[in-house]
Each structure stands twice: as C-alpha cells, then as structure tokens.
Design brief:
By secondary structure, this protein is of the alpha+beta class. Among the domains are: 86-138; 142-196, Head domain of nucleotide exchange factor GrpE (Nucleotide Exchange Factor Grpe, Chain A, domain 2, Roll), CATH 2.30.22. The chain is 63% helix and 15% strand. The protein is built from four helices and six strands. Strands 1-4-5 form a three-stranded antiparallel sheet. It has a three-stranded mixed sheet with strand order 2-6-3, with no helix packed on it. The longest helix is centred in the middle third of the chain and has 43 residues, at 46-88. It is elongated, with a radius of gyration of 49 Å.
Length: 196
C-alpha cells in the first residue's frame, strides 16, 4: 500500500467516526426533546381552556352557594337563640322573686285573719330581708346616701334645704327614694335632699 492510500484510509476513518458522533448527538438531542415534551404538558386548545374554566366556575359557584346556605342557617339560628334569650332572659330573676311573692301572700292572709301585730311586723321584716338578700346575690346593692357628699353620678337632687351646720353643706341631708347599683352601674339614682 502506498503512502497515499494509507493516508486516505486514515482520513476515511476519522470521517466515519465524526459521522458516528454526529449521529449519536442527534439521537441524544432527539431523546432530550422527547423527554422535555413529555414533561411539559401540551398547551390546551382555546376550546379546552374554556371548558376547563367553565368547569372551575361551576365548582366555585356550588361552593359559594353551600357557603351562603351555611351562613344563612347560622344567621337564622343565632337570631332565634337571641330571641329566645330576650324572651326568657328574665326567667331566672322571676324564679327567685316567686318565693318572696309567696311570703307576701301569706302575710296578707295573716293580716286578713287579724293576727298579732308584732308577729305581722316581724314577718314583713323577714320578707324584706329575704328580698334584699336575693337582690344582693344578683349584684344589686343599695346606694348609701344620707350624710354622704352629693354626687351627681349616683344622686338626683329633688330639692335643696338650708344646711343645719356648715359641715353639711353640699351633703345629702335626707333620702327621699333609695337608689340601687347593679354590678357597679347605677340601676336607679337616689332621690335626695341636699344641704345648701
């Protein structure tokens, strides 16, 4: 073999190897593109996208309607509970007053039968004490007024009266109608006579 032939043979081998490398690279590129196409979902057509959006809208509408129905049920139930509370809220208070009413009726019967005056007075005092202890247990306390400094927050001046002494000026001389507090809030102002 001549040198030229050897040289051509050597030149031919690299050409075949280059072609082989190119073929391999093309195959690898093709495989990579296929893999990417498989990973990336195909873009939906406009009709498919519209159908998806309509389906999603229907789902959201149903969820919204269920939510509104739940809220409406909650609102009705809460309103009913509030009405029941207002209607029957005083039940506990009235239940506590009924024994006092029973005692007053017994006292009236005793008066009608002409009972002993001292025992009647004692019975009325017991009824009064029972009622006051019940009120105290429910947070109602009488406002102490006579002899105290006049306070517009708890007192209502019915009239003024010349003070018998200098130290009674601006003080409550007499209580016309007792006032009451309910848990540190004025339930009824005390009507008082103030020294001037």
């Amino acid at each position: 073999m001549s040198k030229k032939e050897e040289k051509n043979k050597k030149n031919e081998e690299p050409v075949e190897e280059t072609e082989l490398n190119e073929n391999i690279e093309q195959e690898v590129d093709a495989q990579e593109q296929e893999a990417q196409q498989q990973e990336e979902p195909a873009e939906p057509t406009p009709e498919e996208r519209i159908a998806q959006l309509e389906e999603q809208l229907e789902k959201e509408k149903k969820e919204y309607l269920f939510l509104m129905a739940d809220f409406e049920n909650y609102r009705r139930r809460t309103l009913q509970e509030k009405q029941d509370l207002i209607k029957n809220g005083g039940q506990k208070v009235l239940d506590g007053i009924l024994p006092v009413v029973d005692d007053i009726e017994r006292a009236i019967d005793a008066i009608n039968q002409g009972g002993d005056l001292d025992s009647l007075k004692e019975g009325v005092d017991l009824i009064h004490n029972k009622l006051m202890s019940y009120l105290k247990s429910n947070g109602v306390e009488p406002i102490v007024s006579t002899g105290e400094l006049f306070d517009t927050d708890v007192h209502e001046a019915v009239t003024t009266f010349p003070a018998p002494s200098e130290d009674q000026k601006g003080r409550v001389i007499d209580t016309v109608l007792k006032g009451y507090m309910l848990n540190d809030k004025v339930l009824r102002h005390a009507k008082v006579v103030v020294g001037q």
